[in-house]
């Protein structure tokens, strides 16, 4: 953003500083690293530790003179540049000198001379020195920022004085955080313009780095710089450098954070005053360019709804500046002002239109837009170019402003309906559309963003005019729509559409498709729910709809806008044809249902729902069924098979499960649900019914509250709906009660089963014990008796510890090998306890309880009995 004036001023400033001291030269804070072997051989090594030790000494006679002598010797030694390897020690010496300045002013010159050396290229002996000494370099550069605290103008200027930058210097400044200290130093320079300008110059260089911009943003650089934009500055550098820094901060750091910093009253007041001064008194190319930059920054801030644009009066001034050329104002700010056709003023006009679009998003701005007569000002461009009238803008400029103004109206006019109507907005737009469609020779330049695709034709003008009409129609304001219909808009839109399709234009196909889509959307908005307007749409309207529906389906994938046009067409069928029986019949006669089914057969989900909805509505017409049944698709597909195919596809997408016989599996068959869960599931099933009932109940209550009396048929219908909703609620409540009662009965049954099981187990044990006692009573073998008693004791002990004892006859175990001699002399072998008596896999089931024996003795527990060594007698089993 350098200009001749600014450059000359800066050079003069720098020249003055050079003349102040003959030792000044064009040197950067951190020079470019060099590998010049000759330069590296010039400087001689010096014992820097000795210099540091000397500077740290105090309270000796003649010490100051000796210290200054050694520092001068150091400066002479490194007059060709500072080696990277020595930077840390040299900057420690610089820091020691700076610390002595307050009590020993002579050290200012020593510090000054060392800082001067920093402007020379840094020297290295090895290629790796840049990496090896990177940390030392970064810390050294950061120290320069801290030295800005020393109250010496010459020293501060010398720190800031730089003419060039290098990637290494910037990188080291980033690591060292120099940007932060330089921002903080601004607070020390409130009334010191020269030093402030040098600091701004440094920050301007540093802000070319994203890292530095982030550091500066965190140090509140944006607000700190913006609040001082109006400080006195005869050179003009302050505003120039400040705006550059703000630009860089917005582009290279967090835009949101910077906007937040600038969104306060103090910053906006400063921007407002700067912009006003430049607008009213800026006549040079540089001033106008700077004015536009400030406006762009303001526009970015205005996007934040929390920015107090209205409170500081900036919004009102911007509206005034945007409209004073079109609407005469007596305001002193614009009295006698006139914009030229220069590039900067032309850009300013477009920027002012743009800022209005941003400002109107804040609703409190609406009244200011009314007061500023913004609608009237913008409508001055909605007319055909007047050849006789001498205008200030060139033809290309006027065309671009015209398109920009119409685009701005599309955002502003819907907020200001009364102003739009009072300016005869509909009539103006329709008249302009007539000119757009006319054969009037007009060579559009089509240079701008808004003029894209409009070179040599009027498509751009038509495109934005239709956008404006579409925005107004979709407000659903009956005053606006009625006025449009009375002015013949429906017929005019159909005429434009027919004219466009009669003259195909493949070169501008995308814009033509957009125009067609907007026409159909406008017609839909006007005709929806209005039978008379649908009748006006009539057969001519049906014809243009059918024309679009016959488009080659392959074009839907072209990306030019055929998809949008088809959506608009289907919407127009719904709004402009359905409900108007003559139009419906004509649509059917022209095989419109066939075309709808052809589109449905394309199986494109984004269209299916809308097409099916239209088909359902058309089925109210008794003539539709015959057309549906007569349709045949590819491979002789019928409408019924197509619909079934779509149904299956929908089921698949929804995840509907089917069994091997293709039956739908119940979704309700969900595992792990309690009775309480099923009670909730009842409500979920009827959720939509409940919501619909709730809405109707609200309607009913509002009718009663407003003390309205519906007609008899409506009253009966409303009462029937309310009753049905109540019945659904009662049905769900009944089902929930049944679930709860069923669960209670099941709980009782479960308790009874457990109790019966306990009783059966107790009976079994009694029988087993009785059998055991009988067995012992019949046993005469002492050894066997002793073993049996020991097993009994183990069983009793195990039962006390809730364990299953081994070899216990009444605990499902075997007593194998337990031989006993019965009185008759026969030996009985008791094998194992039968599973049917002691349990098994069904032991805890209802079946087991049902089969549990309720009679019998101890011998029933014996699976088999063998008679050994004697045929005399056997024990019955």
Could you please describe the fold and organization of this structure?
The protein has 877 residues and is an all-alpha fold. 63% of the residues lie in helices and 1% in strands. Strands 1-2-3 form a three-stranded antiparallel sheet, with no helix packed on it.
Query: Whole-Å distance between the termini?
Result: 118 Å
Mean of all residue-level pLDDT scores: 79
Q: Estimate percent helicity.
A: 55-70%
Radius of gyration: 48 Å
The proportion of residues in beta strands is under 5%
Number of helices: 42
- Net shape: flat
Q: How is the biggest beta sheet arranged?
A: 3 strands, antiparallel
* Sheet with most strands: strand arrangement: 1-2-3
How many runs of DSSP E, i.e. beta strands? 3
Ranges with pLDDT <50 over ≥5 residues?
A: 1-43, 802-877
Going by helix content, strand content and strand pairing, the class is mainly alpha
Features:
single chain; 877 residues; mainly alpha; three-stranded antiparallel sheet; 42 helices
Helices and strands, with pairings:
Layout: H1 4-20, H2 37-42, H3 48-56, H4 63-77, H5 87-100, H6 107-118, H7 129-132, H8 134-146, H9 153-160, H10 167-176, H11 178-185, H12 193-206, H13 210-218, H14 221-226, H15 237-252, H16 255-262, H17 265-281, H18 285-302, H19 314-323, H20 343-359, H21 366-371, H22 374-379, H23 395-412, H24 417-422, H25 425-437, H26 459-473, H27 478-486, H28 489-501, H29 509-527, H30 531-549, H31 562-577, H32 581-589, H33 592-601, H34 605-618, H35 624-630, H36 639-654, H37 675-685, H38 687-705, H39 712-778, H40 782-800, E1 819-821, E2 827-830, H41 835-838, H42 846-851, E3 865-868
Antiparallel strand pairs: 1-2, 2-3
Helix pairs in contact: 3-4, 3-5, 4-6, 5-6, 5-8, 6-9, 8-10, 8-11, 9-12, 11-12, 11-13, 12-15, 15-16, 15-18, 17-18, 18-20, 19-20, 20-23, 23-26, 25-26, 26-29, 28-29, 28-30, 29-31, 30-31, 30-32, 31-34, 33-34, 37-39, 38-39
């Amino acid at each position: 953003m350098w200009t001749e004036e600014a450059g000359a001023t800066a050079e003069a400033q720098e020249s003055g500083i050079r003349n102040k001291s003959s030792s000044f030269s064009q040197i950067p804070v951190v020079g470019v690293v060099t590998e010049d072997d000759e330069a590296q051989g010039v400087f001689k090594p010096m014992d820097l530790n000795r210099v540091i030790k000397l500077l740290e000494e105090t309270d000796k006679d003649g010490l100051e003179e000796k210290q200054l002598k050694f520092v001068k010797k150091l400066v002479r030694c490194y007059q060709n540049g500072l080696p990277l390897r020595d930077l840390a020690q040299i900057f420690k010496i610089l820091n020691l000198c700076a610390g002595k300045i307050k009590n020993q002013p002579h050290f200012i010159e020593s510090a000054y001379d060392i800082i001067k050396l920093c402007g020379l290229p840094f020297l290295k002996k090895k290629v790796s020195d840049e990496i090896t000494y990177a940390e030392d370099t970064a810390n050294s550069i950061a120290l320069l920022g801290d030295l800005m605290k020393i109250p010496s103008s010459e020293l501060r200027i010398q720190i800031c004085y730089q003419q060039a930058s290098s990637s290494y210097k910037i990188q080291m400044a980033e690591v060292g955080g120099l940007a932060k200290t330089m921002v903080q130093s601004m607070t020390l320079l409130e009334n010191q313009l020269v030093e402030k300008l040098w600091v701004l110059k440094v920050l301007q260089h540093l802000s070319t780095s994203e890292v530095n911009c982030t550091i500066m943003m965190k140090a509140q650089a944006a607000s700190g710089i913006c609040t001082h934009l109006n400080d006195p500055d005869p050179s003009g550098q302050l505003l120039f450098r400040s705006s550059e820094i703000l630009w860089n901060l917005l582009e290279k750091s967090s835009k949101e954070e910077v906007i937040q910093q600038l969104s306060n009253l103090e910053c906006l007041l400063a921007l407002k005053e700067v912009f006003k001064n430049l607008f009213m008194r800026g006549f040079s190319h540089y001033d106008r360019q700077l004015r536009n930059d400030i406006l762009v920054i303001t526009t970015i801030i205005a996007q934040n709804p929390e920015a107090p644009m209205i409170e500081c009066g900036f919004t009102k001034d911007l509206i005034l500046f945007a409209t004073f050329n079109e609407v005469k104002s007596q305001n002193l700010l614009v009295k006698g002002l006139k914009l030229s056709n220069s590039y900067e003023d032309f850009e300013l006009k477009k920027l002012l239109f743009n800022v209005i679009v941003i400002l109107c998003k804040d609703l409190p701005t609406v009244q200011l837009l009314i007061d500023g007569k913004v609608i009237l000002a913008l409508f001055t461009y909605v007319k055909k170019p007047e050849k006789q009238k001498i205008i200030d803008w060139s033809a290309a400029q006027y065309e671009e402003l015209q398109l920009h103004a119409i685009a701005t109206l599309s955002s502003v006019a819907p907020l200001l309906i009364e102003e739009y109507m009072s300016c005869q907005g509909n009539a103006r737009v329709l008249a302009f559309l007539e000119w757009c469609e006319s054969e009037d020779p007009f060579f559009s330049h089509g240079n701008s963003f808004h003029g894209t695709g409009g070179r040599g034709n009027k498509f751009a003008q038509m495109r934005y005019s239709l956008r404006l009409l579409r925005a107004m129609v979709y407000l659903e304001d009956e005053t606006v729509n009625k006025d449009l219909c009375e002015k013949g808009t429906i017929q005019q839109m159909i005429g434009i559409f027919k004219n466009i399709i009669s003259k195909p234009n493949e070169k501008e196909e995308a814009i033509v498709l957009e125009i067609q889509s907007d026409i159909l959307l406008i017609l839909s908005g006007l005709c929806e729910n209005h039978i008379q307007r649908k009748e006006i749409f009539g057969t001519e309207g049906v014809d243009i709809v059918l024309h679009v529906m016959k488009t080659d389906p392959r074009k839907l994938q072209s990306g030019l806008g055929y998809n949008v046009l088809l959506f608009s067409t289907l919407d127009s069928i719904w709004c402009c044809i359905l409900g108007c029986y003559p139009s419906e019949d004509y649509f059917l006669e022209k095989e419109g249902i066939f075309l709808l089914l052809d589109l449905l057969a394309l199986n494109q989900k984004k269209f299916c729902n809308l097409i099916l909805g239209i088909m359902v509505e058309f089925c109210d017409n008794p003539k539709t069924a015959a057309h549906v049944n007569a349709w045949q698709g590819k491979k002789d597909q019928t409408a019924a098979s197509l619909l079934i195919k779509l149904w299956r596809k929908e089921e698949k997408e929804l995840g509907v499960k089917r069994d091997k016989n293709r039956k739908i599996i119940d979704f309700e068959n969900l595992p792990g649900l309690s009775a309480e869960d099923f009670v909730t599931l009842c409500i979920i099933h009827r959720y939509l019914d409940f919501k619909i009932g709730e809405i109707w109940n609200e309607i009913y209550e509002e009718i009663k509250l407003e003390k309205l009396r519906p007609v008899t048929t409506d009253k009966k219908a409303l009462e029937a709906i309310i009753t049905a909703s109540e019945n659904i609620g009662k049905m769900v409540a009944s089902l929930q009660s049944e679930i709860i009662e069923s669960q209670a009965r099941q709980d009782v049954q479960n308790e009874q089963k457990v109790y019966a099981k306990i009783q059966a187990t107790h009976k079994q044990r009694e029988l087993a014990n009785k059998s055991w006692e009988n067995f012992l009573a019949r046993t005469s073998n002492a050894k066997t008796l002793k073993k049996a008693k020991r097993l009994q004791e183990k069983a009793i002990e195990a039962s006390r510890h809730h364990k299953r004892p081994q070899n216990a006859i009444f605990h499902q175990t075997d007593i194998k090998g337990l031989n006993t001699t019965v009185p008759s002399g026969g030996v009985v072998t008791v094998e194992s306890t039968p599973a049917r008596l002691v349990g098994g896999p069904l032991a805890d089931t209802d079946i087991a309880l049902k089969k549990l024996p309720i009679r019998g003795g101890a011998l029933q527990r014996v699976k088999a009995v063998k008679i050994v060594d004697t045929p005399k007698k056997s024990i019955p089993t």
